Amino acid sequence: MNRKFIEKGYGIVLDVAMLILGIAMVGFFFKDLWNLGTMVLHTDLEVDFYAVTETILETFLFFEFVVLTKEYFVQDRISLQNFMYIGITALLRNLLVYHADTIGVLIQAAAIALLIVVLIAYRWSRRHLADLAHEEERKEVEFAENHPDQVED
Description:
Keywords: Cell membrane, Membrane, Transmembrane, Transmembrane helix. Belongs to the PsiE family. The chain crosses the membrane at residues 12-30, 50-68, 80-97, 103-122. The protein has helices at residues 3-42, 49-75, 80-97, 102-146. By secondary structure, it is mostly helical. The protein has two domains: 1-78; 100-153.
């Protein structure tokens, strides 16, 4: 089989799957918004505080995943940095709501710290690799600036 035909078919299947996933996430997002609105209007917030905050956390997570699917269609890829940002914010939100278990808090804090360290290392390595890729070009430009009489046009 022709490799381009397989790649094109795979791309179409991936696009359709992402579209279905995006529509489902938008549906769940609006469902959670509806549930949140009814909870706020029809329940005693002092009694059901944890249920309301759990629904708020779910709503924000669905919103972030909808943004990820939008990013896929706009940029034709999903950045690894965005997944790390979502992980960090999800763990921070969870830490704000569920903080009764001390060991759980420490594990979540360690996971947040680990994700931040990995994000910093990832961004540094991308910058370093980009610098290495353009180092040869910079050397050529620097040589041309320092030796204008030896540069061929």
